[in-house]
Write a structure and sequence with these properties.
Layout lengths: L5 E2 L4 E2 L1 E8 L9 H18 L2 E7 L3 E8 L5 H19 L1 H6 L11 E5 L4 H9 L15
Antiparallel strand pairs: 1-2, 3-5, 3-6, 4-5
Length: about 140
């Protein structure tokens, strides 16, 4: 995995996150051709949205993805597109899914998201602590 940064006119970013989302009722439906098609759809969506998949796994009842995304996109917008498009297309292409998910909701509501990167919370706190000039100020939000 390379540590490439996105460079804009006035910005340099590398926004990475580990996301997890599950099928509704955690049904084990992501198997065989459905699993393969789900993966290919997620790859297509990410390419179209300028999102790099660093690593990912499509399990029987959930998806894990470690992605790098542009600052112009919000995480909720990204997940809405991924879940919405895959749900619609998978249910169109696999009629047995339409019977099981009669309300047209293939994915469970919500998702898990954890920011990632090469800088830990402790490293950031140590760096900021270095800027403390008043040793009597015990605030976490200090003045330099």
């Amino acid at each position: 995995m390379t540590q490439e940064y996105r460079k804009g006119h006035h910005t340099v970013t590398r926004l990475t996150v580990h996301i997890v989302f599950a099928t509704k009722y955690r049904y084990h439906v992501l198997e065989g051709d459905i699993q393969k098609r789900c993966r290919s759809l997620l790859i297509q969506i990410c390419e179209a949205e300028g999102i790099e998949i660093l690593k990912g796994v499509v399990s029987k009842d959930h998806v894990h993805m470690h992605i790098e995304y542009p600052p112009s996109k919000s995480l909720s917008e990204i997940l809405k597109r991924m879940k919405g498009r895959t749900s619609r297309i998978l249910q169109q292409e696999f009629p047995n899914l339409r019977k099981r998910y009669w309300g047209k909701h293939f994915w469970a509501g919500g998702y898990g998201a954890w920011s990632t990167g090469n800088v830990t919370d402790q490293m950031v706190n140590d760096y900021l602590e270095h800027h403390r000039s008043d040793t009597n100020d015990n605030s976490n939000f200090m003045l330099e």
